[in-house]
């Protein structure tokens, strides 16, 4: 859904956002039933984008009420609410966008506290990558390197993009997000495959020899955004983005289906060339939206 909205915005074709409006209407603009589960909040990002387009308060009210309850119930907890790195794409952008739309900084402040709780537990300050969750901190690939999942780190990079898009330029901790984004970007380009794609396990391509498109799409989306926004150096990063895009397009079948998407999981895993899942397609659309913008320069 996020990919649909990004493409609609970039290419000016409203059929994609119209499909999302129909989806929102069918769900009565409600989030998922588990109020503090990041996965159940992710759909709210699409609602926020549609609200900006249509200005219909019905698109906003259910999400606002649920987020208010979540903050009241969980803000005093010391342990991270978002204990797995994928969650940094699912929930923080909604809170940042809600803060932007309602002009209520408490949403952004809550997000900020929770982001850095998760980062403190899962971000490796030396490797500049995120462990998927705490189970992986002392586990290793066959070659002895730490286990860092491509899609998990792609989720984080894409989450950073979407938070930065909604966060005010003068927000006090914004420089920390930019620094983390730049650190991760600098790391991932050092482990990109010769075919332009990233393997499911970032630090052991031998153990995970088949390139994977969902993680690659999310990483490509983030790198292209960084170039477009002047956060990343164009001369250094654009060749990596172009190589990644060519690699992704090579995995589109003649019927339009995107292949080489790792199935649902929580770690580097096996996949087939024909594997295709909706989140992979959405990530590809996000990447395409920024590639489209990059091509305008």
List how many beta strands DSSP finds: 4
Largest sheet: 2 strands, antiparallel
Q: What's the Cα radius of gyration?
A: 18 Å
Please estimate the helix content: 55-70%
Spans of at least 5 consecutive residues with low confidence:
none
Outline type: globular
Count of DSSP H/I helices: 13
Kindly name the structural category: mainly alpha
- What is the CA–CA distance across the termini? 27 Å
Strand order of the largest sheet: 1-2
Mean pLDDT over the residues:
95
Query: What is the beta-strand fraction?
Result: under 5%
Report on the structure:
The chain contains 13 helices and four strands. It is mainly alpha-helical and 297 residues long. Helix 7 packs antiparallel against helix 8, helix 7 (92-102) packs parallel to helix 9 (150-166) and helix 9 (150-166) runs parallel beside helix 11 (213-228). It is globular. It starts with a helix and ends with a helix.
């Amino acid at each position: 859904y996020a990919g649909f909205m990004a493409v609609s915005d970039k290419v000016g074709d409203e059929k994609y956002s119209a499909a999302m409006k129909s989806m929102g209407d069918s769900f009565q603009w409600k989030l998922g039933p588990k109020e503090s589960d990041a996965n159940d909040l992710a759909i709210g990002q699409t609602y926020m984008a549609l609200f900006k387009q249509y200005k219909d308060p019905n698109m906003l009210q259910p999400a606002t009420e649920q987020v208010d309850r979540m903050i009241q119930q969980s803000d005093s907890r010391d342990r991270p609410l978002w204990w797995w790195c994928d969650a940094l794409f699912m929930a923080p952008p909604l809170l940042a966008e809600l803060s932007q739309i309602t002009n209520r900084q408490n949403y952004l402040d809550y997000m900020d506290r929770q982001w850095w709780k998760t980062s403190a537990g899962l971000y490796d300050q030396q490797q500049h990558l995120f462990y998927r969750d705490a189970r992986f901190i002392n586990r290793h690939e066959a070659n002895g390197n730490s286990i860092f999942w491509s899609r998990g780190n792609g989720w984080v990079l894409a989450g950073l993009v979407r938070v930065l898009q909604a966060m005010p330029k003068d927000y006090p901790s914004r420089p920390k997000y930019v620094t983390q984004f730049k650190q991760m970007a600098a790391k991932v380009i050092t482990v990109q495959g010769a075919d332009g794609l990233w393997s499911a396990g970032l630090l052991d391509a031998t153990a995970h020899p088949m390139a994977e498109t969902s993680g690659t799409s999310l990483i490509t989306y983030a790198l292209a955004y960084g170039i477009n926004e002047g956060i990343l150096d164009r001369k250094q990063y654009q060749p990596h983005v172009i190589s990644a895009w060519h690699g992704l397009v090579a995995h589109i079948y003649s019927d339009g289906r995107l292949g080489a998407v790792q199935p649902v999981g929580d770690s580097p895993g096996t996949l087939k060339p024909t594997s295709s899942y909706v989140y992979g397609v959405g990530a590809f659309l996000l990447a395409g939206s920024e590639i489209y913008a990059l091509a305008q320069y």
